[in-house]
Amino acid sequence: MIEFERVCKRFGDFVAVDDLSLRLADGEFTVLIGQSGSGKSTTLKMINRLVPHDSGRILFAGKEINGFREEDLRRRMGYAIQSIGLFPHWTVARNIATVPALLKWPKARITSRVEELLQLLGLDPAGFAHRYPHQLSGGQQQRVGVARALAADPEVLLMDEPFGALDPVTRSALQAEIARIHQVSGKAIVLVTHDIDEALLLADRIVMLDQGRVVQDGTPRQILLEPASDSVTRFVGRSEVGLKLLGLDQVHSRMRAPISASAEGISRSATLREALSALIASHAEQLPVLDEHGQTVGSIHVADLLDVTR
Amino acid sequence: MQVWQAGLIKNRVLLVLWLAGALSAALLPLLTHAPNRLVTGKGISFAAVLSGWHGLVLIPALVLAIAPFCRKHPLRDGIVLLACACWLSGLLALAGHEAQQLALTDSSYSRTSFGGGAWILWGLGWLAAADALGQLKLGPRNTVLVALAVLAPGIGLLFSGQLSALSVLKEYANRRDVFDAALSRHLEIVSATLVPTLLIGVPLGVITFRRTWLRGPVFSVLNLIQTIPSIALFGLLLAPLAALATHVPLLAQWGISGIGVTPAVIALTLYSLLPMARGTAAGLAQVPAAAVEAARGMGMSPRQIFWQVEVPLALPVLLSGLRITTVQAIGLTTVAALIGAGGFGAIMFQGLLSSALDLVLLGAIPVIALAIAADALFKLLGSVLGERGQ
Amino acid sequence: MNPAPPRRWWLDPLLWTGLLFLALTFGMSRLQPLFHTLFPEQERPMYLQATFPSLVLAHVLIVGLSSLIAVVVGGGAGLLVTRDSGRDFRSLLETVVAIGQTFPPVAVLAVAVPLIGFGTTPAVIALALYGLLPVVQSTIAGLESVPQPVLQAARGLGLSRWQILWQVELPLALPVLLAGIRTSVIINIGTAAIASTVGTQTLGSPIIVGLSGFNTAYIIEGALLVGLLAVVTDLAFERLMIHSQQWRLATMPRNRPITSASPASAQSR
């Protein structure tokens, strides 16, 4: 889908991206992570040519991106940013319709698409379509921002720290939302963040950058279990590796047969980390596991949580 | 000071205005009356004109005297506004009627005009209305509309003929043609200025916004022009333009010469470029960078970004640049009368040079009214446009 | 720590326009041959009803006096309505200033005549009245621009009200205040020139006499001097404003380039 071949980018004397080679697969959720100045944001912006690359090649759909007309390239990619950048003089509906209108979709198709997207992002179309951005909360604005990025059914969704400015509750709600959208649509998503928990939660694949170079490229589990260097370990947080590993799996992956216990149950889709927390809080060695309807379907045992490498 | 707040008096502003009004009503002449327009008139006090129905004007005054002691409430401010409207028009009606009475007993050369007291009482009435309007917090659009409503009875009186015995309106009646010609000439010069101002000023603003290095030199030059006093700029343009006209007959055919409308429009355009270009650049500068980045990221072309995102978002500030430009041009056109461009300035300066004070007012009042009207109009437009975005 | 401009004193525009202004003020009469050549049709191309130095002095006195009144009264009013005791009057004052500034200065001058009479006094009063408006506005804006945390800190440190005003608020408000005074003075220089139509001797007198007598030479003599006076004053104020903000440049973090405070960004506001 997107390929970087020995790409470099300098700003004056500062080397932002240094000899980067990377291949992002179809349908994959890739998270670019690193500290500020690591080149992660520059890398993302080179994909849609907001930042031109100095040397090397970047391919999109098998073709060097400089071979596209700039606007055409961008219209095939969704783009959402931390500062959202909704157009304050347009309604929510008009904002979402930006790219479809640029692509000259028929009116009826745009209207139905806008409605569909508002629903997808949990915004009631009747209530929100005709509001102006300043009438929305920060979380709602970012939902609209994501909807706008998805509007013309782009082949890839580029997100530059989209949840960075939100409060923790809103942020986790939107993270869940984007994970769901990824699952439903099967679209490739490239997301930039400096938040390791966000990366572990969302990514199929994490690319960790430092000083414009890739320091590690792998699954969340690989990043936690086989850190390529001390700097990766430090970034992940040495003392919490175990807990973070537990966060990668869901309860149903370690489920045993049901038990008859009086303790409060835990959802089968909760993470193992949440299960451990619940076990500790209820002073129990095991807890019943519940499905979506609250029926007991199994149990989770504290001993099974200790073997995280499984 | 806390005692003030907590005590009997709920609106100190209104009370101070009222006391100032009472003081000026007692000390300054409401009207002046003279046997002809060249002699200084005798003062007629406020108290002297209160006989008969004229006393009714004391009712709004009484209401305004009580209002400072009432609790802050929209109703109070509404009543104050109503009282102000009555007071402003009542004062006019009273002055007009008194002038009629005096005209009956005197020769037709006699002149009755407003004295210092009338101006001050009128101004204070306006301030009281402005204070009440401010308390009501109606938003820019409704504020302008209510202000118009307060002014409406006064304007009605002006056109009803009730005031025609007042000397300013006598002057108007004597020179209706001159006045109408001045009005159309004044507006003509202002509109003729706005066209090149928009055509040059807006692109200049856009360029200085895009090319940062141009900002320093361009605004230095425009600021230098703005610094030169209008009368000096008119004077300095006079000689070169006159020389151009004599040596290049073609230019003379186009109407270019040292005096008249053309040099006025040229000078006014030069003055207008600074507020126009600055308003445009400032408007573009306050467009959120995130909106522009998002627009680029979504694949809008530079042209689309400019017309669909930057221009609409810059428009309110750009309009305020146009407002400043227009108000400034209305004022400066007055000075342009000195180089024979006509307009209300011609009436005003004629009055000044011949010591005919009513003539001065006949020239000055419409200019002030035009400037205030243009200011209000652009503010109204800006608020209507801004309501959607902000 | 040293003031940034002037980099080279011989390139300083203030110096050159100032010198040119002085040279023309005292040496205009020596240019008589030049004006004779330029305007051969004029018998007397040199304004002689008053000497140019005396006109300049009169002009500067009128502007200086009216601006002084404007600064004292306008600054006082602005100060008053930003204190707790005068806060009620603030919105009214701001309304008056906003409406007043749409009045053309010439119209204010003209209207002053019927109320006060002809001569220098009404000119000074009208100029002072109009000059008040930008001063009031900038006083309020300047005092308002002082950050709240700074005021709280000053109070917390035990400074008295007067100490806060003199040592914290006024120094911090000074650049904005100066901008208002600059606007006021520049407008007054121009309006004072027109005041010669209400019977005041100013640099406008040769222009008005020249316009009514079709003597272009008079017009140019007056216009040159008024124009230069305004430009010199403006440049001097600009210099003053840079000096009043020395602390702003000096306290800037060293690793950040000075250009972020360049005059261009200040002007585009």
TrEMBL record, chain A:
<feature type="domain" description="ABC transporter">
    <location>
        <begin position="2"/>
        <end position="236"/>
    </location>
</feature>
<dbReference type="GO" id="GO:0005524">
    <property type="term" value="F:ATP binding"/>
</dbReference>
<keyword id="KW-0472">Membrane</keyword>
<dbReference type="Pfam" id="PF00005">
    <property type="entry name" value="ABC_tran"/>
</dbReference>
<dbReference type="Pfam" id="PF00571">
    <property type="entry name" value="CBS"/>
</dbReference>
<keyword id="KW-0547">Nucleotide-binding</keyword>
<keyword id="KW-0067">ATP-binding</keyword>
<protein>
    <submittedName>
        <fullName>ABC transporter ATP-binding protein</fullName>
    </submittedName>
</protein>
<dbReference type="InterPro" id="IPR046342">
    <property type="entry name" value="CBS_dom_sf"/>
</dbReference>
<dbReference type="InterPro" id="IPR017871">
    <property type="entry name" value="ABC_transporter-like_CS"/>
</dbReference>
<keyword id="KW-0129">CBS domain</keyword>
<dbReference type="InterPro" id="IPR027417">
    <property type="entry name" value="P-loop_NTPase"/>
</dbReference>
<dbReference type="InterPro" id="IPR003593">
    <property type="entry name" value="AAA+_ATPase"/>
</dbReference>
<keyword id="KW-0813">Transport</keyword>
<dbReference type="InterPro" id="IPR000644">
    <property type="entry name" value="CBS_dom"/>
</dbReference>
Automatic annotation (TrEMBL), chain B:
<feature type="transmembrane region" description="Helical">
    <location>
        <begin position="145"/>
        <end position="169"/>
    </location>
</feature>
<protein>
    <submittedName>
        <fullName>Osmoprotectant uptake system permease</fullName>
    </submittedName>
</protein>
<feature type="transmembrane region" description="Helical">
    <location>
        <begin position="44"/>
        <end position="67"/>
    </location>
</feature>
<keyword id="KW-0472">Membrane</keyword>
<feature type="transmembrane region" description="Helical">
    <location>
        <begin position="79"/>
        <end position="96"/>
    </location>
</feature>
<dbReference type="Pfam" id="PF00528">
    <property type="entry name" value="BPD_transp_1"/>
</dbReference>
<feature type="transmembrane region" description="Helical">
    <location>
        <begin position="189"/>
        <end position="209"/>
    </location>
</feature>
<comment type="similarity">
    <text>Belongs to the binding-protein-dependent transport system permease family.</text>
</comment>
<feature type="transmembrane region" description="Helical">
    <location>
        <begin position="251"/>
        <end position="274"/>
    </location>
</feature>
<keyword id="KW-0812">Transmembrane</keyword>
<dbReference type="InterPro" id="IPR051204">
    <property type="entry name" value="ABC_transp_perm/SBD"/>
</dbReference>
<dbReference type="InterPro" id="IPR000515">
    <property type="entry name" value="MetI-like"/>
</dbReference>
<feature type="domain" description="ABC transmembrane type-1">
    <location>
        <begin position="183"/>
        <end position="378"/>
    </location>
</feature>
<dbReference type="InterPro" id="IPR035906">
    <property type="entry name" value="MetI-like_sf"/>
</dbReference>
<feature type="transmembrane region" description="Helical">
    <location>
        <begin position="329"/>
        <end position="353"/>
    </location>
</feature>
From TrEMBL, chain C:
<protein>
    <submittedName>
        <fullName>Osmoprotectant uptake system permease</fullName>
    </submittedName>
</protein>
<comment type="similarity">
    <text>Belongs to the binding-protein-dependent transport system permease family.</text>
</comment>
<keyword id="KW-0472">Membrane</keyword>
<dbReference type="InterPro" id="IPR035906">
    <property type="entry name" value="MetI-like_sf"/>
</dbReference>
<feature type="transmembrane region" description="Helical">
    <location>
        <begin position="164"/>
        <end position="197"/>
    </location>
</feature>
<dbReference type="InterPro" id="IPR000515">
    <property type="entry name" value="MetI-like"/>
</dbReference>
<feature type="domain" description="ABC transmembrane type-1">
    <location>
        <begin position="56"/>
        <end position="237"/>
    </location>
</feature>
<dbReference type="InterPro" id="IPR051204">
    <property type="entry name" value="ABC_transp_perm/SBD"/>
</dbReference>
<keyword id="KW-0813">Transport</keyword>
<feature type="transmembrane region" description="Helical">
    <location>
        <begin position="217"/>
        <end position="237"/>
    </location>
</feature>
<feature type="transmembrane region" description="Helical">
    <location>
        <begin position="55"/>
        <end position="80"/>
    </location>
</feature>
<keyword id="KW-1133">Transmembrane helix</keyword>
<keyword id="KW-0812">Transmembrane</keyword>
<dbReference type="Pfam" id="PF00528">
    <property type="entry name" value="BPD_transp_1"/>
</dbReference>
